[in-house]
Write a structure and sequence with these properties.
Largest interface: A-B, 81 and 82 residues
Helix content of chain A: 55-70%
CATH class of the largest domain in chain A: Mainly Alpha
CATH topology of the largest domain in chain A: Tetracycline Repressor, domain 2
Oligomer: homodimer
Strand content of chain A: under 5%
CATH architecture of the largest domain in chain A: Orthogonal Bundle
Mean pLDDT of chain A: 90
Structural class of chain A: mainly alpha
Low-confidence stretches of chain A: 1-13
Chain lengths: 234, 234
Amino acid sequence: MSSTIPAPERNTPRQPLSRREVIDAAIGIVDTQGFDALSMRGLAQELNVYPSAIYWHAGNKAQLLSLVYQRLMEDIQLPDPETLSWDEWILTSASAVRTEFGKHPDLAARWGSQLQVTSSGLEFAEQVLKVLSRGGFSDVQLPLAYNTVSAAIFGWITAEFATEPADAEEEWRTYLEKHVSESITQLPTINQHRNSLLNQAFSLRWESGQKAPLKASFEFSMRVMVEGLKRLKV
Amino acid sequence: MSSTIPAPERNTPRQPLSRREVIDAAIGIVDTQGFDALSMRGLAQELNVYPSAIYWHAGNKAQLLSLVYQRLMEDIQLPDPETLSWDEWILTSASAVRTEFGKHPDLAARWGSQLQVTSSGLEFAEQVLKVLSRGGFSDVQLPLAYNTVSAAIFGWITAEFATEPADAEEEWRTYLEKHVSESITQLPTINQHRNSLLNQAFSLRWESGQKAPLKASFEFSMRVMVEGLKRLKV
DNA sequence: ACCTGAACACCGTTCAAGT
DNA sequence: ACCTGAACACCGTTCAAGT
């Protein structure tokens, strides 16, 4: 009856923590509890280690976030450049990026704040530049076109998945809905198109893209970008 | 010799704090010390009050940030819709937004994370919608075109001013520069156009738009958007 | 190499109490 | 109405020390 078998302190008799485990756990926390819920201490607890163990594997919090975004970039499945025309390739790629980041809306919403030179970012750039170059953009236009494509895709996603404050209770949400509905009676154009705008247009939404996707607008926006590029290509 | 005049604890024999003062001080801290340096406690100290005084005027930190972004939106000087064609109005407005947010790059970089229905946001939307409507966009296209314009402008700015990590020392910067320069030797298209891409294209920059503006790309990007809209307008 | 254990210097937020 | 003063429950990060 005496306890001969000591209870294991951890569910798995763990082998050393890996950087990958740390990154995955961080993504998991953001996805389930929100961006603001990610803390080095909470992450350590989740992994049954002391906080300083995290620092050993992933540097500090800023570097950890950089690694997280690298991971997401790596998971994006870009289409084959050989089988598509440049404009079709861009449209397909844009959808692929949106699909991947749509799985992690709280991270997508903060993509903007990340300016980091990463290997996965460089490979994405190489791909886009190659396709545009083959598409016939001149040497002077190439950087301009590339920046346009990048900003159009990632800028859109940042905006679409921008998150409501985490502490927004149901009460607050219904208040917002009411507030918008009332304010716009003073704004004739909005009011006239209220049915097609409410909760479906920027500044007029009370839910993020996670709950109220803007798929039609996204596709229109990407087509606008591609058609504009065609027209300005020299 | 005895001190008869008590030293004032504050430089001004202050009248009550105003919400506006709090917001202005918050913007000041972000502009001078960076986004991460903004804390409710630091802000309180700057204003010579206890932290709880801030809460009285501006709610919590999330609400304070919302107020900050409202303030920036209000400061944007949009052109007169009567004197310009719809496409010129959009190009001029886009530049106005970029100019205003360029004064506060650390806030611009985090614009994306803000999803809040605000009165200044609604007014911006009304203006854009009015111009597009007069421009001849159909009822079904109006929300799509509006979302496209909004995301193109604000998404771009978020990306352009995305900030490097605050703790980036000079050493780190030169390391990045070297790292990029070396990595791209394996990436033929990037390598071929390295002179026009390095520090001037997304994912290939080691400085934010504050230090290395992307003005030419911004203007090209906005023209692409406008030309695309013209082409898809029905 | 990988992690423990503890410490330091901070945070955001709440709340009773003052004036 | 506007703020003080103090408390609570957290943070990120560092560093010596262990194995």
